[in-house]
Amino acid sequence: MKKILFFLLTGFLFNVFAQEIVIKNPWVRAVPPTAKNSALFMIIQNNSDKTDVLKTVKSDVCKMVMIHRTVKQGDIMKMVHVHELQIPPRSKVALKPGSYHIMLMGLKRPLKVGEILEFKLIFKNAGEITVKAPVKMK
Q: Which of 1, 10, 35, 104 is surrounded by the fewest CB atoms within 10 Å?
């Protein structure tokens, strides 16, 4: 009986602590009070054996949220809308300045350094993950 209880408890704890998608170091770029756009950055770690896909992001702080990637075309840096972001199995994808990022367009109010903003990331397999990200000067 003790062995069965041990395995049940171990399995329960493994499921609680072994999250398939883990969000690390989320932050939002601080912008001047008159700015209408900002960006959300983070590291998305996929601990599962299958590819997951970030489908969309939701937030009350702005009118529209889009996944973007910065690309260089000739001598010009340009942001390109990405409809979804694949996170390969057992890997990390960094959303950072000059690369993939989440654009926050049409800010509804000025952002203050140090405040914490909430976002809902919607994944194909992992479902909805709520992320709290501080506003930082970087």
A: 1
55 domain residue, yes or no: yes
* pLDDT band at residue 14 under the 50/70/90 scheme: very low
Tokens 């998305």, residue located: 44
Task: Determine how many CB atoms are found less than 10 A away from the CB of residue 114.
Answer: 10
Instruction: Determine the straight-line distance between the first and last CA of the chain, rounded to whole angstroms.
Output: 55
- pLDDT attached to residue 1: 54
- When divided into structural domains, the chain yields a total of 1
List, for residues 73-95, the tens digit of each pLDDT value.
899 999 999 999 999 999 999 99
Report if residue 6 sits inside a domain. Answer: no
2 domain-assigned: no
> How many alpha carbons lie under 13 Å from residue 44 in its C-beta half-sphere?
26
- Domain membership of residue 106 as a residue range: 19-136
> Which CATH number belongs to the domain containing residue 87 in this structure?
2.60.40.1890
The set of residues, in sequence order, having a beta carbon less than 8 Å from that of 79 and lying 6+ positions away, is 68, 69, 70, 71, 103
